Amino acid sequence: MADKQNLLPAGTKVPEHIGVIMDGNGRWAKKRGLPRKVGHREGAQTFRTITRHAKKLGVKYFTVYAFSTENWKRPKDEVEAIMDLFEKYLDEVRDFIEENIRICFIGDRSMLRERLQQKMRSVEEDSLHFDSMTLLIAINYGGRDEIAHAARALAYKVQSGEMEASEIDALALENELYTSKLDGDKAPDVDLVIRPSGEQRLSNFMIWQAAYAEFYYTNILWPDFKPKDLEAAVIAYSDRHRRFGGI
Ligand code: IPE
Ligand code: IPE
Ligand code: MG
């Protein structure tokens, strides 16, 4: 708390849940005449710094979009390089555990390498009881895929007689989303979505959970994104007037 007061102007409302679309790694590398994978490596460093900073600001849930269900369309060597980086960073991400950060993954992991899946499970288990902040890493994540997955889970429940079709409402569906299946915990809706790199779109990120999110776009490329840029996004959020359909 003391930290937070030093970093943000007094009275700043900090979002409970921030989502970040970590975009612009490829362009960052291209600008320097470097291979795209170097951009992903730099982006991974930024991820570490910004995650720690989110915790310092008092954010409770921090979701990062690391790999989408559409990113498999990229050249095989780029996808391989990204998967190699995930494996490497899953070892390093263990540092977060020492900082009392809980780590969860969202997305369809069945398509990922077995070794990566094992590491994901083990990081989740080892950080289960930490509660200063929950970090959700979205890998092979797509909002449409997540909703289809939830619909399927409800269909099975109806088929087995566990519930009636007429009982399906928004809350029942929400309860089947990846973000509601965090080993006994459920992430709240995302309050603020940050997208660097100049693109102004969701690209299939948390399309259900972002129904009432505030959006913050910046032209900064993700590898150049600094703690002060996160603070700027939080301050901008704090000045917004959220109405949720009311007046
Ligand atoms: C985001 O950076 C990382 C992933 C999608 C894995 P990009 O690789 O999309 O970077 P740009 O958009 O090409 O600059
Ligand atoms: C979104 O970025 C996915 C991640 C950052 C993981 P993309 O670079 O894949 O999105 P588009 O293709 O520009 O919409
Ligand atoms: Mg991109």
Short overview:
This protein is α/β, with parallel strands linked by helices and 247 residues long.
Tags for this model:
9 helices; 43% helix; alpha/beta; 247 residues
Give a verbal description of the structure.
This protein has 247 residues and is α/β, with parallel strands linked by helices. Helix content is 43%, strand content 15%. It has nine helices and six strands, in the order αβααβααβαβααββα. It has helices at residues 2-7, 25-31, 36-57, 76-92, 94-98, 114-127, 143-159, 170-174, 227-238; strands spanning 17-21, 61-68, 101-106, 133-141, 192-195, 214-217. The longest helix is centred in the first third of the chain and has 22 residues, at 36-57. The chain is globular. The relative contact order is 0.19. One 3-methylbut-3-enyl trihydrogen diphosphate binds next to β2. One 3-methylbut-3-enyl trihydrogen diphosphate is lined by residues 22-27, 67, 71, 82, 197.
Sheet with the most strands, sense and barrel status? 6 strands, parallel
Mean pLDDT: 95
Q: Globular, elongated, flat, extended or rod-shaped: what is the shape?
A: globular
Q: Please give the count of helices.
A: 9
Q: Span between N and C termini?
A: 32 Å
Helical percentage: 40-55%
Strand order of the largest sheet: 3-4-2-1-5-6
As a percent range, the share of strand residues is 5-15%
| Rg estimate, integer Å | 18 Å
Spell out the helices and strands N to C.
HEHHEHHEHEHHEEH
Ranges where pLDDT stays below 50 over 5 or more residues in a row are none
Q: How many strands appear in the DSSP assignment?
A: 6
Bound small molecules, by name, code or SMILES, are: 3-methylbut-3-enyl trihydrogen diphosphate, magnesium ion
**Class based on secondary structure composition and strand pairing:** alpha/beta
